[in-house]
Amino acid sequence: MKIRALVVEAKDAPFKLEEIELSEPGRGEVRLRIVASGVCHTDAITRAGDMPMPFPCVLGHEGSGVVEAVGPGVTTLVPGDKVIIGWPSCGECRNCLDGQPRYCLHTGDALVSGRRFKGELKGTTAYSRNGQELNGHFFGQSSFATHSIVSADALVKVPDEVPLELLGPLACGLATGAGAVLNEARPKLGDSILVVGVGAVGLAAIMAARNSGVTKIIAADVHDNRLEMALEFGATHTINSRTSDLVEEVKKITGSTVDFAFDCTGVIKVIETMAQTVGMLGTLVLIGGAPAGASFSLDHLSTLWGKRVIGVLGGGGRSGQLIGSLVELHKQGRFPFDRLVTYYELDQIEQALEDSKTGKVIKPILRMS
To answer: Domains of the chain (ranges plus CATH)?
Structure first.
């Protein structure tokens, strides 16, 4: 069938709205009508070549939509179901079987090969243009389009009454921030945390921490307006890291160091500074995406004294558990991420990216209709 999609022709090329072809769903797959898709920093760095997605391609990975058709073998979904597109995984490797599908051993192929990564259609693409294949299946969805082919087992059903166009960012950015706190760090009653970079991911981490027993939630950023928002969402203290020394300010607030420090920037210099805010048995949590090939260094002796460094993909856990819980917390008023959102039309993608980069908006969402 013919659909509309944003195509990136080559590295650093603009998003171009085009009519392309989408094949029918295969075994275990579903065709979705995409209602909306969040715009994420990962889309921008992929276009810039910092992730190995082949071009030309269709990006987008924070989609929500309505099931239009199901392929052979799909029994858990029917046309009309409202869904969020969760994290793709093989379901068969050691990590998947251990309940950690975010760390599926085939994650690289699942996210950025541009092709289906499992099943009888492995290595093929559902997308084409003028008879020529297009790379798609970005994060298992390529949701910068009016329709998408996805694996049924990646989908998370949501109640009919929830605003579907709002929910796409729960597939990646917001789930990453919240899941890093609730699934991966799991801070104890009375712990302290530092969140550096309070865009959508960082604010989601702060909202999640507010739903825990953490008693000190420190937000750091270079934009005062974002720090003010962090206070509204649950931060107990803020630091403008452009005008203040991060390590010294943390010491003033806590008397020493924090139990957990969450990097949501992907900036190497920031990460190396943050490591100094974490003491013995503390944990540095890496969330933000750094450029390809980036590396950082830590002081060996202070790290040796029980300091931990962990990376987090997609918030950890299972999509159904994480995304479903965040939907419920939002319904209860305990995860008010709707206040972060600004809507754009599909052909306004470049403006959405620019507004996000400058800090004018926190979380852009593209509407498909």
So the answer is: 2-172+317-367 (3.90.180.10), 180-311 (3.40.50.720)
Q: In 3D, which of 82, 83, 89 has the Cα closest to residue 156?
A: 83
Distance, CA of 182 to CA of 286 (rounded, Å) = 14
Q: Rounded to whole angstroms, how far apart are CA atoms 36 and 323?
A: 16
- Quick one: 297 exposed, middle or buried, by C-beta within 10 A (0-12, 13-18, 19+)? exposed
Q: Residues 6 or more apart from 321 whose CB is under 8 A from it?
A: none
For the stretch 143-171, pLDDT in tens is 999 999 999 999 999 998 889 999 999 99
Can you tell me which residue has the tokens 């052979």? 72
| CA distance linking residue 89 with residue 107, whole number of Å | 7
Task: For residue 143, count CB atoms less than 10 angstroms from its CB and return exposed for 0-12, middle for 13-18, buried for 19 or more.
Answer: buried
Q: Are 85 and 164 in contact (CB under 8 A)?
A: no
* CA 113/CA 204 separation, integer angstroms: 28
Between CA 229 and CA 369 the distance in angstroms is: 30
Amino acid at the residue 279: G
- What count of residues does the chain have? 369
Residue 180 gets which letter from DSSP?
I
Nearest alpha-carbon partner for 273 in 287, 256, 261, 288: 261
Supply the pTM of this predicted model.
Answer: 0.92
